[in-house]
Design brief:
Shape: globular
CATH superfamily of the largest domain: MetI-like
Order of helices and strands: HHHHHHHHHHHHHHHHHHHHHHHHHHHH
Number of strands: 0
Strand content: under 5%
Distance between the termini: 50 Å
Number of helices: 28
CATH topology of the largest domain: MetI-like fold
CATH class of the largest domain: Mainly Alpha
Number of domains: 2
Length: 575
């Protein structure tokens, strides 16, 4: 009887070296920087000490910032969901006059966000804005700084954070089976009952995810509280930034970031637990697309239309303000009064006539392209290993790469800054804090989870027979990957590359902790221009930056979603 032999896969030196690189990267930039600051904070003296925690809890500003962040997060959960659901219903469910124009306005947050969006809202509602000037004329006692504090931050973030709703909740609504709506109609159910009992329950999984994401965004808000919070409303992340910039308070920054991280982990764990228990999906074998519903009640129809166009005004004004003010002189920008004489092209001429003026753009473009490319390469390699070697090591790799999803970017930034502020053997005795490399590493780290999920889904959607066929024809692993596998998943890869790229360009929340002072990225430049002490000429230049940013983002999004629709159409024709 012949002895049975276990068939082992041949040793591949390239895969081995790449695996070692991945292990080094994970330990160096995902595990070690997040553990080291905690150890230094609590065991820095050689023994366990809670002195930093006691010192933090004794700070009234720090405790107040924690309470303010939690308050803001809870408020946003209600306001963002309310507005987001309403937007999706207006765009895809109800038959609203001018829905196409409304859709363009509601999708505007996809082409500008963060500091650029805050810039637009400050032009509309801030000091010396036309609205503020009008209110002062009506009431001379009106406070010019009226748009500040919790109300202002919650207002801006409510309309800034609906991007996920118009993207993902819209897709979920399109998957609702119209036959269930027709069945409810035939049973005599009213439009309100159908919406409440049939449509919204099928959106629960997506709504639940949006709720958690909204809470975490509110909890870690940075730019909006800095711009509109004022002295009376400080949140966690700006407070961490304040502590991190002081050499004597870095331990407090670590503790505060750790608190933020603990809250984030608790919320995400609750989400995963609740998501596992939930069962809201209803599937039909022959699904019919949802048809837009005319609102039969006359009063309700008027109210919905008025609310829709009121939201249209709120979403459109900041975009128009950025575009219009970019074509005005410094006097109009500083005073908020626009006349025919103030219209000029000088801002654009000045921007494009000097390489130095475009320097922040070149820096951000360089960071954006390099980081988006590197994170895609790392995730492609990891996804390939997970598909080819389904074992405990690759499953552990999947969990380790999810670390940035469970930690706020603030905690990651503080960890990188504190850890690599000194010589570390793990990075060949180099000091990375204050260099160009640390921001690049930060961008790669925070974009790993989302990119890995997309690339992994694309990889696992490929039939194994295709790879086996290439192998039988004599193709090696590298040739098979480049010529067979990569072309199939390329549309998804290009899509995630583009989304990461446009997310990095205006980033401020992570950038402010890690950037090199001599190489100021676009997000920092725009944020600096929002301050009241900045000259009008500087604001004019940054208005042009923001317009260019919106144009770039529009082109990229049009390419990505146009390409996805084209591929879906081709697949439909093939089927």
């Amino acid at each position: 009887m012949k002895s049975l032999r276990i068939r082992r896969k041949p040793f591949n030196p390239i895969i081995f070296v790449l695996s070692l690189f991945i292990l080094w990267f994970i330990y160096s930039f995902l595990i070690f920087p997040n553990v080291n600051p905690i150890y230094e904070t609590f065991f820095g003296t050689g023994t366990f000490s809670l002195e930093s925690v006691q010192k933090l809890l004794g700070s009234e500003r720090a405790v107040s910032s924690i309470i303010n962040s939690i308050t803001l997060a809870i408020i946003l959960v209600f306001t963002v969901n309310l507005v987001g659901i309403f937007l999706v219903l207006i765009i895809h469910y109800f038959d609203i006059k001018g829905a196409v124009i409304l859709k363009l306005s509601f999708y505007s947050t996809l082409i500008y966000s963060g500091v650029a969006l805050n810039f637009g809202y400050k032009l509309v509602y801030g000091k010396n804005s036309p609205l503020t000037n009008f209110l002062i004329q009506v009431n001379p006692d009106w406070d010019a700084n009226w748009f500040s504090g919790l109300f202002a931050v919650a207002f801006v973030m409510t309309f800034a954070c609906t991007s996920n709703h118009v993207l993902f909740l819209s897709s979920a609504l399109k998957n609702v089976d119209y036959q269930t709506i027709e069945a409810a109609k035939n049973l005599g159910a009213s439009q309100y009952t159908i919406l409440k009992k049939v449509v919204l329950p099928t959106l629960k999984p997506t709504l639940f995810a949006m709720t958690i994401l909204t809470f975490l965004v509110g909890l870690g808000a940075t730019s909006a509280p800095l711009v509109f919070g004022g002295k009376d409303f400080e949140t966690i992340t700006p407070m961490i930034l304040t502590f991190a910039n002081s050499s004597s308070s870095k331990d407090l920054a670590t503790v505060l970031a750790l608190i933020l991280g603990i809250i984030t982990i608790i919320v995400l764990s609750f989400m995963l637990h609740s998501e596992g228990k939930g069962n809201y999906i209803s599937i039909s074998k022959t699904k019919t697309n949802v048809k837009k519903q005319k609102i039969k009640n006359c009063l309700a129809n008027i109210v919905v239309h008025v609310a829709a166009y009121l939201l249209f005004i709120i979403y459109t004004l900041p975009v128009l303000a950025i575009i219009i003010y970019s074509f005005t002189d410094s006097l109009a920008i500083s005073s908020g009064v626009i006349t025919l004489d103030s219209i000029t092209l000088d801002n654009y001429v000045l921007t494009f006539s000097s390489i130095e003026a475009l320097r922040p753009y070149f820096i951000s473009l360089g960071y954006g392209f390099t980081a988006a490319f590197l994170v895609v390469v790392v995730c492609l390699l990891c996804s390939y290993l997970m598909k080819k070697y389904d074992n405990g090591l690759t499953k552990a790799l999947d969990y380790f790469l999810m670390i940035p999803w469970f930690l706020p970017s603030t905690l990651i930034a503080v960890g990188l800054t504190v850890t690599f502020n000194d010589v570390q053997g793990i990075v060949f005795n180099q000091v990375l804090t204050g260099t160009l490399w640390l921001l690049l590493i930060g961008y790669v780290v925070v974009n790993l989870p989302f990119t890995l999920r997309i690339t992994k889904s694309a990889f696992f959607g490929i039939h194994n027979q295709m790879e086996e066929a290439a192998k039988n024809l004599g193709a090696n692993a590298f040739y098979t990957f480049v010529k067979v596998l990569l072309p199939i998943i390329l549309p998804s890869i290009l899509g995630v590359f583009a989304l990461n790229f446009i997310g990095i360009l205006p980033d401020y929340d992570l950038t402010v902790f890690l950037y090199h002072p001599l190489y100021e990225p676009l997000g920092i430049t725009i944020m600096n221009a929002i301050g009241n002490s900045v000259t009008a000429d500087t604001k004019a230049l940054n208005l042009v930056y923001t317009v260019i940013l919106m144009i770039i983002n529009t082109i990229i999004l049009a390419f990505v979603y146009g390409n996805l629709r084209f591929n879906r159409r081709k697949m439909g024709e093939h089927e």
